[in-house]
Amino acid sequence: MFRGSIVAIVTPFRDGRVDEDAFRKLIEFHIREGTDAIVPCGTTGESATLSHEEHERVVEIAVETAAKRVPIIAGTGSNSTAEAIRLTQHAREAGADGALLITPYYNKPTQEGLFQHFKAVAAAADVPIVLYNVPSRTGVNLLPQTIARLAGVSNIVAVKEASGSLTQVSEIVALCGEKITVLSGDDPLTLPMLAVGARGVISVTANVAPGQVAALIKAFESGDLAQAREIHYRLRALNDAMFYETNPIPVKTALGLMGMIHPELRLPLCPMGEANLARLKGVLQEFGLLP
Fold this sequence. Notes:
By secondary structure, the protein is of the alpha/beta class.
């Protein structure tokens, strides 16, 4: 259902508030550049520091602006199952095409707890659900065997896999087959993951270079592996730059330097250090992304 180049879009702020005009312009930019779907209110969208009202408004703006030209997959995860259900129900009511749910963080549920959490959300909200596994940020790893169990739930359709393990990706594909779509959650691993059965990426790098990320996916899907490899290596420095510091600090800084947003972050995220900022500017200059 969801595949291709999917952007984990930033949430622009100005003077402490969501910059709605800038957000709409970013969505239009992605549609022009060939992005296949948009994820608002994910980790890159600073969901952790959005109020519930802001979270809902950002999803509503994304749905209204996209106007069904590309799917909107709303980030609706939480470490509280009840809160995840509420956010997912709102996304459905707002007209989102799907929901991205991160594994519950901090409370470190067991694999059975993870299964019951996602099953409960899926039962409470009739919307296609993408699981999101990023153990480096959550402290818990959604194992392939648990994903295979969840693949039997009718509206759980995909997993954003960001464990960093190609072995784990391969095991998910082997266990689930066509029952669930695997999406890369690590930009540097997109091409290797496509090679073992993933169908796309939910990308940070696509915020600044959507056309190139989309071109990589399209080249692979068309069988042009040489072109896909060329783009993979071309994007290597940019992928690395997006993680010089904690995401989304570098990507929002980059978009600010590109003149696309005001690069405002919410505490506890803070502006980039000078040394990393200089490195980031150099990479953006090399890619021709600075005005």
